[in-house]
Amino acid sequence: ATKMATDLRLLQHMKEIEEPFEKNQVGSSAMAYKRNPMRCERICSLSRYAITNVMNAAQTETGQWLERTLDDSANKRLSVPEGFLTIDGVLDLVMNVSDGLVVYPKVIEKHLMQELPFMATENILMDAVKAGGDRQELHEKIRELSMQAAKRVKEEGLDNNLLDLIAGDAAFPLNRQQLQERMDPKLYTGCSAHQTERFLKEVVEPILVENREILGRKCEIKV
Questions:
Q1: Cys-Cys link to 47, which of 2, 25, 105, 130 (CB 3.0-4.6 A)?
Q2: For residue range 170-184, what is the model confidence (pLDDT) as tens digits?
């Protein structure tokens, strides 16, 4: 749960995904525009406690004299119920976040297309070598041009012009159209679509079938 919530917080920072946000919810008492991921932050906070609480059992077990003392009693009465209450709270929050998660495909696409020219360089290199180019020379060219494009993006805030730089370099036996054909994101997903479908069918669907009686339950939290 904490790993999921941490990733969602990062993606919300990038404006790609957002946890639910109520109509009249206040994100910050000082900065009214903010939409802080308070649910995911709470998941991380509670999970941190639950993870460290596990050490209570280990410490109690290692320090109990021949399992005949009562030094475990007070610890158990604190750690066991608090642990279950904490995990229950985490699960409630996870249900609430999952039920109202908001995804922004256009922002994701924008970020992807900004980085895609860099991702495509391996395929561009292979295409150029197949067309008769020298691999070592072209590899160094791509490295140099990538540094130029990255500097332009980071220091000047401009668009990624790596394809233009490659197309304008005589060392590459490829035209602009051939380079542009490598800008399809689906060329770089590998087996991920098949793996996802297989995971859903073999792992997720059996769990949903087994627990179909409780599907659709809602979890409301106070914000």
A1: 2
A2: 999 999 999 999 999
